[in-house]
Amino acid sequence: MTAEPLSSTARQTSPGLARWWRRLDHPLGLTGIIVIAVVVRLLLAPHFGFYGDLRYFREWAGRLQERGLRHFYAPDYFADYPPGYLYVLAFLGKIQQSPGYQLLKLPILIGDLALAWCTALLAARLAPESVRRRLPIRPIVLVAVLFNPAVLGVGAVWGQVDSVPSSMVMGTLLLLLTGRRSVARDLSGMVLFAVALAIKPQAGFLAPVLAYILIRRYVVDTPAAQRLVGAARLALITVVSGSIWAFSGVPFGLSPSGLVNFLRSSAKTYPVTSANAFNFWGLFGFFKRDSDNYWNGQFEVVKVFGIKANTFGTIIVGLGAIALVWAAHRAITHGCNQARTLIATAVATNLLAYTMLTRMHERYMFPVIACLGPLLMWRWFRAAYWTLSILFVLNLWYPFALYNGQWDASGRVGRVYGLTIQPWFRWFFGNIDAVDTGQKKLWSFLVVVVTVAFVGVYYRWLLRPQLPRVWARQMLAPGRSDSVPDRGRPVPPAPERAAARDATGNNEQTASEPDTELPPAPLARTAIAALHRVRTAIPLPGAEKPAPSGWLRHGPRSLVALACTFGLLALRGELRSARTLNDSTFHLQMIRWASGQLERGRLPLDGWFPDLTLGSSFFHHYQSLPYTVTAILGRILHMSVSSMYLWILYLLVSLWPISVYWGGRLMGWGRWAASAAALVSPLIVSIPSYGYEHGSYTFQGWGVYTQLWGMWLLPLTWGLMSRAIRLGRGYPLAALALALTIATHLMTGYLAVLCLPVLGLLTNKQFGARVRRTALLGAGGLLTAAWVLVPLLTDKKYSAQSTFYKGTLYNDSYGAKVILGWLFRGALYDGRHLPVITILAAVGFVVCALHLGQERARIVLGLWTLSLLLYFGRVTWKSMINVLPGSEDLQMHRFIIGVQMAGILLAGIGTVALARLVVQGATAVWDRYGSAGSPTPAAKNSIPSLVSATAVVVLGAIALSPSWRNTWDYDRGGWAFINQQRDYDRIDGPDVSALLQVANNRGDGRVYAGTRGNWGPSYKVGFVPVLHYTSHNDTDGVGFTFRTVQSLTTDIEASFDENNLSQYEMLNVRYIIAPTSRVPAVPHTVVQTLGGSTLYAIETTGYFQVVDRVGSISANRVDINDATAAFRGSDQASRSVYPGIAFDGDKPLPDTVTAATDSPPGTVINQSNQRADGIFEATVSAQRQSVVVLKATYDPGWRVTVDGESANTVMMAPSIVGVEVGPGQHTIRFSYRSYPHYPWLFLLGALALLSLGLWPRREQVLVYAQRAARRFRPRPGR
Fold first, then answer.
1. Locations of Polar residues compositional bias (predicted)?
2. Long-range contacts of range 553-562, CB-CB < 8 Å, 24 or more positions apart?
């Protein structure tokens, strides 16, 4: 076996420690270990215990004493334990009718000692002779078992009996796998197993391994002439041991069939995914219904791929057990040690059952730990033993603390220790009262990871056994041509065979033969050879020569040029300007505001953006760099905002293949693979959209302009980060690329940061150096982006979290079931046409999987897998997604960008792989049929290349034609929409714009044109709703919702009630523009009618209002809409009565009036504003202590002066800013102050980049610094 034995540790053990262990390896020392273990248990037993279980044990012992075995079970009495352990409780009941904790735990103590002794004995017999000579196995394993926190936790602390059946299972393995073979010995072992099964049905997880042992021993390995006798012996063992289990319930009135029915009924006690067990089903949620059985009023059954959880888990465990036993059989047949192999198989089978079966309790992992004990001398199994022990203790801790804490809090049972040690418990498990928390799902995920890792190590252990030293010498001997030794079973010399029999009592290959393991079995060798041939036939792209000769060297660049030319031609209609109907409307408004700030001499890093959602400090809550850069370029080139925007959009979309190509090259892929990825990049289209496809950006699409910048940067960022981590240089450029990605599109930047571990840690060399480089690059990139991240995080609590997005695809994505359905139907890469790109990506996936030894293959698969898992979103991962920082603000459906970007790279790899196969085929055909007619030797070399190239081009054009056609038709269809909208803008647009300009000229209130949730989308100019026109005309509007989603007024605006006059007052909605046929339901006057539209005026006090503060509302960024709903539904705003807001735990402010009054608190004499500069001024007259509110969203950046003196701002309902004033006339000035620390943050970023640049040369810099210090050091005497 290839697992490293304990001897590696023994070589490092100090002589003194080794001698100390040696002293323990005799009766007195072993007795001392056992005595100490007993004392520890006796000290723990009286004070701790899981009250629920021990209460039942005590009640059952008393009931057994009172009523006897026959009448213990009753239809109206709860007892879900099978009869096995009830015999023990009956005996304890005879000693004491209501046993205490010490007496109840006495059998557990005995079970612990028996388990430790059997494990130590079995480990000593399994250990190679060389290890036994160097280390005393028995005391080491005794200590590892008896003082394992998992063993102490489940027994002495909890009070459960798992060690009792586990000790019997260990005795079964000891009897069956060691010692001299005999029917009596095997029968004794199976009788022990039957008793263990009668105590705990979970012992049945070992049944496949035991069945294999007996069938192999009495049938397979028995000579043909004696197989009938062997079968009879097998039947005898089976019948006797099976009868002991089947008839164990007879004294209790349970026939064998009654026992089976009882076990079925007990299994239905908790028909749930996971009963507090951290396993695969914990990822889906704890105590979720797993089948059609009723559970706690739940209707939804957890399903995987449409299969009920209970059925799915059973199928996986059944198939897995068969696969594990078959692998063990093949390994044993070809020379692996039988005892070690079967014990490892027992561990794998138990662990698979615990991980994948539903209805598991937290304690059911214990048999796994018990079976790992005999394998502690191997490094990987030793690591698994302690890892699973730690996870097991953590798993025990949660229900122990939860339920004991509930019993203790009830006050009915005396003092019960729950061990809820805070804050540690909260850090490890989250809220104790929450059924599903992210921390518990994280532990479940770790158990799944350990299971997968263990099964992987197990298979590697079986399929790649260590070559004997003698064979290695023979294979390396001169003149030897065989790649593997002869497959005959080696026969050790007679003395070694005798030693083997002395150790184990049988002639099978044993643990005392450390050098008799065979090389890979023929089947494994054949599979490896076949895999090698496939890898050779389909090499990983990237191995081509640095500069292909001849015309081929222009091929990759030609593919990139072709993809760019296609985009430039297909998208040229996007350069025609028209009113937009998607997010482009909002982006254009941002750019116009940024351009205005530049015109005023200010760099638009922050400021008050006034025209959407009652205004917001949008630029420091959002990815504003693309707006600023676009505005700067427009001013430099003297182009209008609209023209500059369209040209940048056109060029970035069309020329994106260049970024894909260079990103692929930087990640280590060859010219052809990178250029093939660039070729397919413009052809991506998906059903869910929002990915890296033309429909995300064009006029008829979504218009996500900032994502377009992130799309251009992500391939380059991946490539630069990968190169920096791989080579240890180029940190500044990689960190700058990461920072720019964050600054241009936060979701793309977030994905890039999450991808850092994939880029840095999927390596098989220089792992420590890679970890340091990854951490250095990540820290440098985040520090460089500090000017974006620090203001964002500082004011996070004032950034709204919309309740309208909760539970929608925007926040939660679609879930694995839907996304995998799209993936396998081709809908993520090809939309609804022939799945060409999907097939190419699948081929690329297979090619990378075949070459997992290559780092670049692992990286692209890792990027794709990580992105896909993130794209599954909250629908799949539920609360487990909360482990991601800021996950509550992530739009999970946007992670399709990573799936598509990595898929494009895979498609490029698949294209090259298929092209190579075509070239090989064409060359073979030419060599066979066409070379004879070649006129010259030169032609014989050039013609096959020409034929191959022609074949690739023709087949590639045919294969990609559906994708080319689909993208071309879509883009050209956008031209028609743009031309039609231009006609509408020319005919009907001026009337709407003129009405909006009237409101703009007055500048005293906001304009309402419906919302996106009522009649707003149906009131259009051509294709564009008029509520978009308010944004196009830079009108201060209400109704163009969910644009500046960071504003605290986001949900309040979306909930606007157009029939409530008070809401017009509190939001200063002074105008309504609507179809002439639609008359407002509130009092109004007609301002003007043009064409089919009318502008109405509503009476309000303007942007300012003098109000009384009465009452206080507690709210935060999540619930502010719901918290203020009652106020917004009332008429208080019309009566100048507003409650204050105690925001995010702030103390409520006192009322400004103590008694109700009908007189107004004051009036606004005059007011003015410079909205674009964030300045609002008013002169007010206050009759009493009152609050002057500015009907703009509250933000900590607001500053206010009252009569020239600074004052404190307050938050008022629904989410606006105000200032408290006394009686009299006052001059009020509100102004927004931008975030003040940008210079320091830019300096921090610059220093981070400088440090990254100097880091690889730190030794040289240190030398130069020392020389400089010596040069300027003053000389003595001067």
1. 504-513
2. 555/671, 555/672, 555/675, 556/661, 556/671, 556/672, 556/674, 556/675, 557/675, 558/675, 559/675, 559/676, 559/678, 559/679, 560/657, 560/658, 560/661, 560/675, 560/678, 560/679, 562/679
